[in-house]
Amino acid sequence: MNILLVVACALVDQDNRVLIAQRPPGKKLEGLWEFPGGKLDPGERPEDALIRELREELSIEVKAPCLAPLTFASHAYEDFHLLMPLYICRRWEGFVQPREGQAVKWVRPRDMRSWPMPPADEPLIPHLIDLLG
């Protein structure tokens, strides 16, 4: 089974809400809510991939020292195994503006289970609740 490495970020605003994005129509797991991020390019460091993905997806600029690893997900899907480190970020430049047709929402970690998420993302919620309340 192939292992797919992707990175994800919990962007946290001043009210301790976390940004989630809805997967757009036509993508696998469409309609589900997830943490922004994506696949690493060959030879790319996870932090660099996350900086690139946040710029491409949300029009924000993040510096590597502002990314703090929190936890990771390890989940077996039918045709691959996903390994996904989750970083926390509280500082970025610019305003969140979705650029790929995705809806976004700022939600409190304790309310995240109200939004359907991919199976790999769900186990990350308790870590955010412990950190942010």
Question: What is the fold's blueprint, element by element?
Answer:
Layout: E1 3-11, E2 18-22, E3 33-34, E4 37-39, H1 46-58, E5 67-76, E6 81-89, E7 104-107, H2 125-132
Parallel strand pairs: 1-6
Antiparallel strand pairs: 1-4, 2-3, 2-7, 5-6
Structure, described:
The protein has 2 helices and 7 strands. The protein has 133 residues and is α+β, with helices and mostly antiparallel strands. It has a single domain, classed as Nucleoside Triphosphate Pyrophosphohydrolase. The strands form 2 sheets. A 4-stranded mixed β-sheet has the order 4-1-6-5, covered by helices on one side. A 3-stranded antiparallel β-sheet has the order 3-2-7, with no helix packed on it. The model has no long low-confidence stretch (mean pLDDT 96).
Distance between the termini: 37 Å
Instruction: Indicate the radius of gyration in whole angstroms.
Output: 14 Å
Give average pLDDT, whole number. Answer: 96
In oligomeric terms, what are we looking at? single chain
What is the name of the CATH topology? Answer: Nucleoside Triphosphate Pyrophosphohydrolase
In brief, what are we looking at here?
The chain has 133 residues and is α+β, with helices and mostly antiparallel strands.
Keywords:
single chain, 133 residues, alpha+beta, Nucleoside Triphosphate Pyrophosphohydrolase, 7 strands, 16% helix
